[in-house]
Amino acid sequence: MTKCRICEEETAEKEICPSCQSDQETMKQAFEEEEKHNRELMNKDSAILKSIEEEFGEEIIKTIHEELQESCSCLGLAIVDKQKGEKSEETRDGINIYYDQTVNGGYEGDSFEGWIWIELPNKKYLQSYYSM
Ligand SMILES: [Zn+2]
């Protein structure tokens, strides 16, 4: 008998007992599924940004990247007909931005989350969730 190097229970021969082994496999699977999900979201986002670039040129893509980087959000973009936020007083390169902040400070006072809409030249909106 030897001891499992994770739970230190006695186990036969192997370094890791069957129970810890199966925990590890479950974790690995969950991790891989999340990775796959994120990759899919990223591909979908890239396709949306690409279609905006094709329609309106690369200048607006720069603006969108700047805006999204500032609000730390990137995954889960969508193009929608209506925004449901409040217009920001500041525009970015003349583009209207709308926010619906659902978490304003939070417990720690430093977390902000919500929705952002960037107005496109055709009066549609690029929607994203942000959290910082
Ligand atoms: Zn174990």
User: Pairing-aware structural class of the strands and helices?
Assistant: alpha+beta
Cofactors, ions and other ligands in the entry: zinc ion
Strand content: 25-35%
Count of helical segments?
Answer: 2
**Radius of gyration, CA atoms, in whole angstroms:** 22 Å
**Alpha-carbon distance between the termini?**
50 Å
Instruction: Report helical residue fraction.
Output: 25-40%
Q: What would the average pLDDT be, to the nearest integer?
A: 90
Shape designation: elongated
Largest sheet: 5 strands, antiparallel
Order of helices and strands: EEHHEEEEE
- Read across the widest sheet, the strand sequence of neighbours is 3-7-6-5-4
Q: Runs with pLDDT <50, length 5+?
A: none
Into how many domains do the coordinates divide? 1
Number of strands: 7
Helices and strands in order:
Layout (H helix, E strand, L loop, with lengths): L1 E2 L6 E2 L6 H39 L1 H13 L7 E3 L5 E2 L9 E9 L5 E9 L5 E7 L1
Antiparallel strand pairs: 1-2, 3-7, 4-5, 5-6, 6-7
Helix pairs in contact: 1-2
This protein binds zinc ion.
Concise account of the structure shown:
The protein is of the alpha+beta class and 132 residues long. The protein is built from two helices and seven strands, in the order ββααβββββ. The chain has one domain.
